TrEMBL record:
Pfam families cross-referenced by the UniProt entry: Acetyltransf_1
Protein name: Uncharacterized protein
SUPFAM superfamilies xref list: Acyl-CoA N-acyltransferases (Nat)
GO molecular function annotation: acyltransferase activity, transferring groups other than amino-acyl groups
Length: 156
C-alpha cells in the first residue's frame, strides 16, 4: 500500500523530540489512564544520545515529509533488542508498522543478529505474533509490578 509514498531513513539526533512525540501519541492510542501514561513518560522520551548510539530509523511520507513512525534497535550483551517501534494512531492498521518491523529485522540481521528480542506492550503482542515472533516469557513493567509484558523472540 505504501511502497511508493513512504521512505524509511536513519533518524537524526536532532529529531529526538519528534520521535518522543510519536511514541507518546502511539502509546496514548490504547487509552491508558493519565497516571499510567505518566509512568511511561521516561520510557517514551527519546534522547539525542540514544539515537546517536543505537540504530534508529523513521518512516515518513515522501510528499509531505511527515514523520509517522520509527523504530530503534539496541544491543544488550550479545542480543539485539527492538527497543522502540511506534506509529502514529492514524497509521495503525495501514501496514506501516509491519514495514518498520521488517526493516528492523533486516537491519538486525545485517549487524549479525540471528534473533531479535522484543519486550512488547500487551496490546502489541498479537502484532508481533502475526509478524512471526514467538512469546518466550514475561517481565514486569517498571513501576507497575502487577502489569506483565510479553517477551518475544523473532528468529531472523
Amino acid at each position: 500500500m505504501y511502497d511508493d509514498d513512504v521512505r524509511i531513513r536513519p533518524a537524526k539526533p536532532e529529531e529526538a523530540e519528534d520521535l518522543s512525540d510519536i511514541a507518546w501519541r502511539s502509546k496514548s492510542y490504547w487509552d491508558y489512564p493519565v497516571d499510567v501514561m505518566n509512568i511511561f513518560r521516561d520510557m517514551l522520551s527519546i534522547e539525542q544520545d540514544f539515537i546517536e548510539n543505537n540504530p534508529s530509523y523513521l518512516i515518513e511520507h515522501e510528499d509531505t515529509d511527515e514523520k509517522v513512525g520509527f523504530y530503534a534497535l539496541e544491543k544488550k550483551g550479545d542480543k539485539w533488542w527492538l527497543e522502540h517501534l511506534w506509529v502514529l494512531p492514524d497509521e495503525i492498521g495501514t501496514g506501516l508498522g509491519g514495514k518498520l518491523f521488517l526493516h528492523a529485522c533486516e537491519m538486525a540481521e545485517t549487524m549479525g543478529a540471528d534473533e531479535l528480542y522484543i519486550v512488547s506492550d500487551p496490546n502489541a503482542e498479537e502484532f508481533y505474533r502475526h509478524m512471526g515472533a514467538e512469546k518466550i516469557g514475561e517481565e514486569q513493567t517498571e513501576g507497575m509490578p502487577e502489569r506483565l509484558l510479553p517477551v518475544m523472540r523473532m528468529k531472523l
